[in-house]
């Protein structure tokens, strides 16, 4: 079932699309019917930069197991980092 819940957030990063790398500024996370993935519903994540037009978008459609595994892997990777390593002001050693 569609939850009609959409979480919108600001992000800071980069993504690679058909025209190369671009800055990511926005993300949307929601459950809905997929456009391409098999199944009736997926967790959908859109990463984008609206200022660069519709081509500056990365879309993910994940089944529940894949979405949970991805979220757990991301949390585990971040939990294992030394404090401050990914801070925007940190410099490589």
What are the main properties of this structure?
single chain, 93 residues, alpha+beta, 4-stranded antiparallel β-sheet
How many helices? The count is 1
Distance between the termini: 48 Å
Mean pLDDT: 91
Strand order of the largest sheet: 1-2-3-4
Number of domains: 1
Overall outline:
globular
- Give the percentage of residues in beta strands: 35-45%
- Please describe the biggest sheet, giving its number of strands, its sense, and whether it closes into a barrel: 4 strands, antiparallel
Helix/sheet category = alpha+beta
Q: What is the succession of H and E elements?
A: EEEEH
Number of strands: 4
Query: Which stretches are poorly predicted, pLDDT < 50 over at least 5 residues?
Result: none
Q: Secondary-structure map with pairings?
A:
Layout: E1 6-17, E2 20-32, E3 42-48, E4 57-62, H1 64-79
Antiparallel strand pairs: 1-2, 2-3, 3-4
Note down, in words, how this protein is organized.
With 93 residues, this protein is α+β, with helices and mostly antiparallel strands. The protein has one domain. It is built from one helix and four strands, in the order E-E-E-E-H. Strands 1-2-3-4 form a four-stranded antiparallel β-sheet. A hairpin with a 2-residue loop joins strand 1 (6-17) and strand 2. The model has no long low-confidence stretch (mean pLDDT 91).
């Amino acid at each position: 079932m569609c939850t009609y819940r959409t979480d919108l957030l600001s992000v800071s990063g980069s993504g690679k699309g058909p025209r190369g790398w671009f800055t990511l500024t926005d993300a949307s996370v929601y459950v809905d019917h997929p456009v391409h993935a098999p199944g009736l519903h997926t967790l959908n994540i859109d990463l984008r930069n609206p200022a660069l037009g519709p081509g500056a978008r990365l879309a993910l459609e994940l089944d529940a197991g894949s979405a949970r595994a991805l979220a757990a892997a991301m949390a585990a990777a971040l939990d294992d980092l030394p404090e401050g390593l990914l801070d925007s002001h940190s410099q490589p050693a």
